[in-house]
Amino acid sequence: EFNWVTVDLAAPRQVTMTAASYCENPVLYYDVFTFKSTQDENQKINIAYMVYNTFEAAFDDEIKKAFDLFAQASTENQMPIEYLILDLRYNGGGNVSSCCYLSSLIAGNKALKGGNPQVFMYHRFNEERMAEQGRDRNDYTTYKADLFDKSAASAYNFPFKEVYVIGTFDTASSSEMLINALRGIGMKVTLVGQTTNGKNVGMEVFNTQSSGSPIDGNHYIFAPITFQSYNCNGESDYDNGFTPDIHCKKSDWDGMPPVDWGTFTVEIAGDRPGETQLILADFFSVALNDLLSKEFSAQSSVKRLSK
């Protein structure tokens, strides 16, 4: 076993290494938080929380596992989950289909209109490309229709009163698309944290290897920005980012490691030995406090039920 304390870095050492591919699961954490009033035993609330780090289609099943847990908790507690806190503070975007998938799970039957899936996103390419491909300004993607059969609606049609999204400047592209898309169908989305990145455009990937057309004998992958996205109301005015509804001050904590996800407060040591530690509120705690203030009276004490 390798020991950094006793190892002699000057001594020769032979190490055998095996190449392997590793992909991090972007669904970093999920849980259900149940709170009740200490003054009224019948006043309880279920809150779902998920930390999602990048939109990666290979891990859509991990998103489903989180929502399966939310559904299971709702059944076991015999009470619906009425709020979702979606932590996208480090999510810089990714696969649009995964964004559509997650948005569909969140929206449930709210994504339907007249029994049909509503528009998730309009795509606008430049005029020349749209003419070449027979596209027009009505080219669009709908919410995922396969999620709206009877079984899926029963499992995932959560009665969310509000979705809290935790965001920072690192929150970009598909993360912002999700906010815009859900707001477009009338869902209440409250942004907590800082102004987001402001990337309301997307890219298509061109691979010369797959096309069999090398350039100067070499193959390249190009991912130029080729389209702008709009929600079903034709809104795309977040090129300067989304301004948070609840702005977190610099004294608030943005959850850099090693803080555990779902932490309410964080102890930060001072810069110099012996300096007093700071007790800061995590962005999650800021969102949670605002949420609880809407469900419980100011005079009511609130506590989390044990798992």
Sheet having the most strands: 7 strands, mixed
Order of helices and strands: EEHEHEEEHEHEHEEEHEEEEEHE
Helix content: 10-25%
Task: Give the strand order, joined by hyphens, for the main sheet.
Answer: 14-9-8-3-2-1-17
What would the principal axes of the Cα set say about the shape? globular
Task: Describe, in plain words, how this protein is organized in 3D.
This protein has 307 residues and is of the alpha/beta class. 23% of the residues lie in helices and 25% in strands. The protein has helices at 60-77, 96-107, 127-132, 150-156, 174-184, 208-211, 283-295, and strands at 27-37, 44-52, 81-87, 112-113, 116-117, 119-124, 140-142, 162-167, 189-193, 201-203, 206-207, 221-222, 225-230, 246-247, 265-268, 278-281, 302-304. The strands form five sheets. A seven-stranded mixed β-sheet has the order 14-9-8-3-2-1-17, sandwiched between helices. The radius of gyration is 23 Å and the shape is globular. The two termini are 37 Å apart. The model has no long low-confidence stretch (mean pLDDT 86).
Topology:
Blueprint: E1 27-37, E2 44-52, H1 60-77, E3 81-87, H2 96-107, E4 112-113, E5 116-117, E6 119-124, H3 127-132, E7 140-142, H4 150-156, E8 162-167, H5 174-184, E9 189-193, E10 201-203, E11 206-207, H6 208-211, E12 221-222, E13 225-230, E14 246-247, E15 265-268, E16 278-281, H7 283-295, E17 302-304
Helix pairs in contact: 1-2, 2-5
